[in-house]
Amino acid sequence: MNPIPDAPAAAPDVSALREEILALKAARDAVILAHNYQPGPIQDLADYVGDSLAMARWAQRSPARVLVVAGVHFMAETAAILCPDKRVLIPDPEAGCSLAESITAEQVAAWKAEHPDAVVVSYVNTSAAVKALSDYCCTSSNAVAVVEAIDPEREILFLPDFYLGSHVARVTGRKNLHVWWGECHVHAAIDPETMAAKVAQHPGAELLVHPECGCTTRALALPPEGVPMQVLSTDGMIAESRRSPRTTFIVATEVGLLHRLRKENPDKTFVPAQDEAVCPFMNLITLEKIRDSLREDRYAVEVPAAIRERALIPLERMVAIGR
Ligand code: SF4
Fold first, then answer.
1. Which of 1, 42, 171, 180 would you label with 292, given CA atoms 20 to 30 Å apart?
2. How far is the CA of 98 from the centre of ligand 1 (A)?
3. H or E segment at 136?
4. Could you give the CA distance from residue 137 to residue 146 in angstroms, rounded to a whole number?
5. How many domains does the chain have?
6. Same structural domain for residues 164 and 310?
7. What confidence score (pLDDT) does residue 53 get?
8. Dist. CA 287–CA 260, nearest whole Å
9. Separation of first and last alpha carbons in the chain
């Protein structure tokens, strides 16, 4: 497993870097896809900003020759699987994901051997090798829709996120869904006590909770009467913040999302459920590394053909099934 990186250095002066990156992007016929958890200056520069599902769909639709993925490694692998004719670059190859590393292909194969008739549903936060052993992929945006699309009589092996799997089992009411015990160290650390304190400090706020969070179960029982609470993907939180008449929101996910929420809703207030919910892997990506990636044409992410062909099937199902 990749060691968890140290906190990033101070933010750089961005204007000269921005100009350099824009010129390189045009020269290389490149676009930048950024995840909602990326630092603000990178979101502001990117051609597309969204969750994993939106990034996958944009990767497929983009006419550009080069895709620079400002996110973590499995997101670049997903783009490489979906877009074999494009060159996919990640600015820092060490940008991994503790959740993706919580299950290996060997562990999936062994689990499948114990449940030979089960359908395997993998969260997109997995390696290409794990996807190649899966029947469906999903994101937090469409996990419920994916599970509901599967014959209710079939057993399901849901991996690797325990909290998302438990949420899906709760929402769908499925009893034949087995959940792997994996977690994202950032979301798992958003604890119920801290969130409850924020709720007490901001009466009337709406609670937006990501289903990967360790506080999800408690959050469902927590809201005092009249306080709305929603379990949503990051893009779902963006949509809810626009739609809701509330003016204050407590947001339980990685804090990078607050940049976009505040930018799109300048008249509303967004409070992190936990100030320290910072993904060190996401923050390995910097403007300098994006510049170097474009300038040096590095670091290319490629998936071996045999794995790519098999992993494409569950990924195409994921992209096709609703949000
Ligand atoms: S926030 Fe968690 S799930 Fe998302 S990339 Fe970081 S470690 Fe992985």
1. 1
2. 6
3. strand 136-138
4. 8
5. 3
6. yes
7. 86
8. 17
9. 31
Q: Which atom of ligand 1 is nearest to the CA of 125?
A: 3
Per residue in 47-104, pLDDT tens?
A: 999 998 899 999 999 999 999 999 999 999 999 999 999 999 999 999 999 999 999 9
φ/ψ of 202, rounded to 5, equals -125, 70
Q: Does the Cβ of 186 fall within 6 Å of ligand 1? A: yes
Instruction: Give the relative orientation of helices 52-61 and 73-82 as an angle to the nearest 10 degrees.
Output: 40
Cβ count near 98 (within 10 Å): 21
Say what the pTM is.
0.91
CATH number of the domain at 238, please: 3.40.50.10800
Whether 231 maps to a domain, the answer reads: yes
Q: Whose CA is nearest to atom 2 of ligand 1?
A: 184
> What's the rounded Cα separation, in Å, for the pair 161 and 143?
11
Q: Is the CB of 206 under 6 A from ligand 1?
A: no
Q: Give me the domain span that covers residue 41.
A: 15-98+281-304
If asked whether residues 172 and 313 sit together in one domain, one would say yes
44-61, pLDDT tens digit by residue? 999 999 998 899 999 999
Note whether 323 and 238 are within 8 A (CB). no
Both tokens assigned to 102: 């919580």
pLDDT at 199: 87
**Atom of ligand 1 lying closest to residue 100 CA:** 8
Looking at the domain assignment, is residue 30 inside a domain? yes
**Is pLDDT at 13 greater than 80 in this prediction?**
no
pLDDT digits (tens, 9 = 90+) for 264-275: 999 999 999 999
